[in-house]
Amino acid sequence: MSKELMFVQCTIQKFGLGGILSQVWIPEKFAIKERYIKVKINGEWEDNWQVIKVFEDIKKTEQEANIDAEAWKYQRGCSDI
After folding, report:
1. What is the pTM of this model?
2. In 3D, which of 59, 8, 60 has the Cα closest to residue 32?
3. Across the strands, what pairs with 12?
4. How far apart are CA 73 and CA 81, in angstroms?
5. Per-residue pLDDT for 69 more than 60?
6. Separation of CA 70 from chain center
7. Residue whose C-alpha is closest to residue 11's, from 53, 49, 46
């Protein structure tokens, strides 16, 4: 039985474009603070994203992480912001 791939919530930053920040779910093996990673955005890979914070206590399966990643689309419409 193989070990299931777990995802960790992280804050990443893209330097050179005003310091863009993003909250993402990435595979646990890449969730290392200060590591540079590639991120797939709209089907294309972008280099030079740095992991600046790792929420090590928040781990989910790929399916759970995908559900949470899509939840923001529905939460904003229900808030007072």
Report:
1. 0.75
2. 8
3. 22, 51
4. 14
5. yes
6. 12
7. 53
**Average pLDDT of the residues in 49-73:** 86
Q: What is the 3 state secondary structure string of the chain?
A: CCCCCEEEEEEEEECCCCCEEEEEEEEHHHCCCCCEEEEEECCEEEEEEEEEEEEEEEEEEHHHHHHHHHHHHHHHHHCCC
- The residue assigned the tokens 């992480």 is 65
- What is d(CA 30, CA 5) in angstroms, rounded to the nearest whole number? 12
Categorise residue 74: left if φ over 0, alpha if ψ from -120 to 50, beta otherwise: alpha
User: pLDDT by residue (tens digit) across 16-49?
Assistant: 767 788 889 999 999 999 999 998 888 999 889 9
Q: Which amino acid is at 25?
A: W
Which residues, in sequence order, are CB contacts of 69 under 8 Å at separation 6+? 24, 25
